[in-house]
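Residues determine shape. Next comes a sample protein:
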Amino acid sequence: MASDELDDDQKKGLFSKVTEPFHTVPCTRTAYLHGFASGLLSGVSTFLFTSNVRKASNLGVVTFALIMPGSFFYCRWKNFKKELEKQRSTPATIAPWRPDDESSDVTNEMKET
């Protein structure tokens, strides 16, 4: 029945809908992990040295906000450069018609005259 067959969007749970960009957009997962780890590290180390929770949490959030997009754009740029090098390294395709081709009509006409 039609009611038994649900669309893919309706079958997905809330968690799947929220985490979908992490699986579809390249470099997203890596960028979030780099941002989270650097923010946590800077926040904890600042707290250990200053014992000021507010300053440590502010620095952790700022570090995350700077490192995450930087890591994302660096990863995307690196992937773009890799694809560009791959395109440059592939040999160019040969045109289907060449003037020195024996089977072409234009070359045969030129030889007859």
Notes: The chain has five helices and no strands. Residues 53-89 form the longest helix (37 residues). The radius of gyration is 29 Å. The mean pLDDT is 80.
